[in-house]
Amino acid sequence: MNFQQLRSVREAVRCGFNLTEVANTLHTSQPGVSRQIRELEEELGIELFVRAGKRLTGLTDPGRHVLPIIEHILLGSSNLRQAGAEFASQQSGLLSIAATHSQARYALPMAVQAFRAQFPDIKLHLHQGSPEQVADMLLSGEADVGIATEALGRYEELIALPCYRWTHSVIVPPGHALLDEPLTLQRLAGYPLITYDTGFTGRTRIDEAFQAQHLTPDITLNAMDADVIKTYVELGMGVGIVASIAFEAERDLTLRAIDAGDLFGINLTKLAVRRGSYLRGYVYAFVESFAPMLTRSVVEQALSGAQSPLALAKPAALPERLALEGPGH
């Protein structure tokens, strides 16, 4: 039994049983992948995969039982290498962060700047994607830390820790009618709306708020980031709904923001790591730089199961990030 055999089995599942993709992922040949899987099956005395001719089509019952063990062994191997690297080189290495656009653009810069000042020799890789893509990068080991508002808490393999709370703002051009009277969902539903795509940056709360009032909003444009939303509001295509942190009064001079926290409620941004993973010291330092309440002790307790992430999830106990105050806000 060897690690290449175990990786072949794991990647076969991750790649939807497509051995060509497995071979590309592992930088080997398709016959080589098939041989590694067959040799492991022969050693274990069981078949791990259902086959149709030479094709893999699924996992057998023994395969479903063995797969979590394989995942655990490979994760342990990765942790062992990380632990060795931790002591071999305390101040060098790589930190890979996966985040949605809103987090990367508006929430991360100060933390990244502070981290770079403290660890100038650590290489930083910043990946952007949807919340689901952020989770996938964590699960595959491509990212050490993931940051997003939605989705991260739905994965059993991840530890998702709440970082801060935030609300939405409605953005309009100067002189817009919505600036004249108190904002309501009924008034808002009377305009074409531009907001986040489904699954991004608190979109779920926006949809739920309208549904609770039996209103059907006219979502004229969905986008993945606030910069796009603001651009189309400036063009007069509709009223925007963005995260409050995405409105910057000193930059967004052609727009005005109206707080919509009472309409759409409080959202939580979460920071996630893979359950059971070994985190090097500088990873803990970055986490605390981004979310000061997530000290190394807190994260270690969550990873060990001694501290439930739910115990940290009370919105009132978390810091709040809002838009910068400015004209018309």
CATH superfamily of the largest domain: Periplasmic binding protein-like II
Number of DSSP strand runs: 12
- The N- and C-terminal alpha carbons lie at a distance of 63 Å
Give the biggest beta sheet.
Answer: 5 strands, mixed
CATH T-level topology of the largest domain: D-Maltodextrin-Binding Protein, domain 2
Strand adjacency order, main sheet: 4-3-5-12-6
Oligomeric assembly? single chain
Which key terms come to mind for this protein?
329 residues, alpha/beta, 5-stranded mixed β-sheet, 13 helices, 12 strands, Arc Repressor Mutant, subunit A, D-Maltodextrin-Binding Protein, domain 2, disordered C terminus
Summarize the helices and strands and which ones pair or pack.
Elements: H1 3-14, H2 19-26, H3 30-44, E1 49-52, E2 55-59, H4 61-88, E3 93-99, H5 101-107, H6 109-118, E4 122-128, H7 131-140, E5 145-148, E6 158-166, E7 168-172, H8 185-188, E8 192-196, H9 203-212, E9 218-223, H10 226-234, E10 239-243, E11 256-259, H11 261-264, E12 267-274, H12 281-290, H13 296-304
Parallel strand pairs: 3-4, 3-5, 8-9, 8-10
Antiparallel strand pairs: 1-2, 5-12, 6-12, 7-10, 7-11
Helix pairs in contact: 1-2, 1-3, 1-4, 2-3, 6-12
Describe this structure in words.
The chain has 3 domains: 3-87, Winged helix-like DNA-binding domain superfamily/Winged helix DNA-binding domain (Arc Repressor Mutant, subunit A); 90-163 and 268-317, D-Maltodextrin-Binding Protein, domain 2, CATH 3.40.190; 168-264, D-Maltodextrin-Binding Protein, domain 2, CATH 3.40.190.10. Helix 2 (19-26) crosses helix 3. The chain has helices at residues 3-14, 19-26, 30-44, 61-88, 101-107, 109-118, 131-140, 185-188, 203-212, 226-234, 261-264, 281-290, 296-304, and strands spanning 49-52, 55-59, 93-99, 122-128, 145-148, 158-166, 168-172, 192-196, 218-223, 239-243, 256-259, 267-274. The longest helix has 28 residues, at 61-88. The protein has 13 helices and 12 strands. With 329 residues, it is an alpha/beta fold. The N and C termini lie far apart (63 Å). Helix content is 41%, strand content 21%.
